[in-house]
Amino acid sequence: MAELSFIQPCLWFNDQAREAMEYYVSVFPNSEILSIDEYPDESLDEHFVGMAGKVVNGQFRLNGVDFVCLDGGPDFTFTEAISFVVSCRDQEEIDRYWSQLSHVPESEQCGWCKDRFGLSWQIIPANMGDLIRRPEQIQVMMRQKKIIIAELENA
After folding, report:
1. Strand order, beta sheet including 120-125
2. Which helix (DSSP H) or strand (DSSP E) does residue 67 occupy?
């Protein structure tokens, strides 16, 4: 088992933790799966029924940020109350992450998107604060789904 960071997010999946880890490390540079521990034989405990081979503890790193995850069943799902911010250097990087992470068009707003696992992301330029200093820039941002830097600069 890899050593845990002092504070790190833990993502609860129904039964897609392994698939999600593989997907996320393919999206972000300098990323890797650190370890995957599977549930033991289901005959050992009533809580393990139907979980054999699923992830009880997965550890992965996305561009220097450590995460843990697990397959915990359908009791809990992701909401927009938690999201991860991806700070992009330019429009090209915004476009790339947006195309890879946005899978729920009705959830797109102001740079927010939702991936195929239901996790929310904010794909924004690193200088977002500078791009929304004036009320007219904020109005433009509020109408955007994916952030278009040029539209904010020209507002």
Report:
1. 83-88, 120-125, 112-114
2. strand 65-71
- Residue 1, pLDDT above cutoff 60: no
Q: Is the pLDDT score of 92 beyond 70?
A: yes
Instruction: Say if CB 52 and CB 39 are below 8 A apart.
Output: yes
Quick one: CATH architecture of 83-153?
Answer: Roll (3.10)
CA 22 to centroid of chain Cα atoms = 12
Structure token pair of residue 143: 């109408």
Residue type, 3: E
Fold match, 10-71 / 83-153: no
Phi and psi (nearest 5°) for 68?
A: -125, 160
In angstroms, the CA 117 to CA 130 distance is 32
135 contacts 152 by C-beta, under 8 angstroms: no
User: How far apart are the C-alpha atoms of 68 and 149, rounded to whole Å?
Assistant: 33
Q: Which residues contact 5 (CB under 8 A, 6 or more apart)?
A: 66
For the entire predicted model, the pTM comes to 0.90
Domain ranges of the chain: 10-71, 83-153
| CATH placement of domain 10-71 | 3.30.720.100
